[in-house]
Each structure stands twice: as C-alpha cells, then as structure tokens.
User: What shape does this take?
Amino acid sequence: MIALVLNKKSITVLLVVVLATSALFALSTVSTFTPNNPYTIAIDPGHGGIDGGSVGVSGKDENYLNLQYSLCLQEILTKAGFNVVMTRTNLNGLYPAFSENKKIDDMKKRKEIITKAKADMVLSIHMNSFPLKSARGAQVFYKKDNIPGQKLAENIQDVFLKVLPNAKQSPLVGDYYMLNEFQIPSVIIECGYISNKEEEELLLQEEYKKLVCYSVFAGVVKFMSL
Ligand SMILES: [Zn+2]
Assistant: This one.
C-alpha cells in the first residue's frame, strides 16, 4: 500500500516542483524580491541536545527528524536563490556546556541567530505527538494577530492539504516562544505525528520528506507572490 502511495507521491512531488517553479517565476517580477537583495529565511530545527523532543513509535526522536527535514528544506530554498540561515545544523542543543538553564539558553540563542541574520521569515520545523495514537496530519501554527504569519501559515497549509495525505484542514494559532518573539512572519510547521505508526513510517521515508519540504517551499513562494 505504501509503495502505491509513494508512486502517486512521486508524481505529486513533480507537480509541487512545477507549482513552486512557476510561482517563483512569477515572483521574480515582484519588486520586493531581487537576486541582489536575497530574502533571508531562517530555518529552525526544533529541539536538540538534551531535549530530543517527542519520541516516535520506532524510537527515533524529533531532534533527528527535525534536523533531516530542515537540511532538506535548506537545500531546496538555497537552490531557489533564497538566503538561508539555520539555527542549528547538527544534533546538539544551542546552550553553553555548563548552562544552568539549558532550555532557556537554547531558545535565546535561536532568537539571537535569527535576529542577527536580519531574517525576513522564520520556519520552525517540528514533528507532532499525541497520546491518542490515531491523531495524524501535518499542521502549521502562527501567532495570533501576526497577520503575515497567518497568511504564510495558510499558504503552506493549503499546499499540505492538496498534497499530503491526512493534512489538517486549516492552520492554528499557537502560543510558542518561536512565534511570540518575532514580528516577521514566523510559523511552526508540525510535519506530522510520529506517535502515529503509519504517519511515522511515511515521515521516515526520503521521498515523503522531499514531498513535505517541496510543499513548504511552494507555500513560501505562494505567500511571497501575493
Ligand atoms: Zn517539537
């Protein structure tokens, strides 16, 4: 069944790439985006170090998957001409070795990297988890009253809904540090539930990872062309 799904998905990946490429072509005519003044996108792989995040049915943790998805997204966005800044590129946390408040120091460091880079947008990458094992579906979160953030979330969720199996119908307001600390469009992307066996199996597949990342890319481009 999964092989069949992935065959269909291979075609879908191509469609998403075509969608994103044509949107990017349209975008090149928008005055706010020029190759000489690249738009900076911060990619923030959630968790890291002592904080592995949620643990999936297979035993793999969020830290690992968040990083894999973030690196994939980094490659896609960089190739498309965006300036990309990563808050982390390995499995370590962002706190000093002898920090007494590792979680707080980690979050502050993320904010510092994003602020220093003068990022125009934040994409924070996570995997979801819920005690009810049937819960599934990719979903994007944004800060209440951050209208550009809401628009970005809607555009990404829109592509998820068209492309991914079981994606949620709409994005949600979230009260999280990585949303609350920024005025720029900032979203938390929960790529799917690793507490759901079938969805975790998909999330661990290379091809599905590309499908999710190209969908995020298409949503970003769509948001920027509006
Ligand atoms: Zn998380």
Summary: The longest strand covers residues 121-128. The beta strands are 40-45, 83-86, 121-128, 139-142, 172-173, 186-193. The chain has one domain: 2-16+49-225.
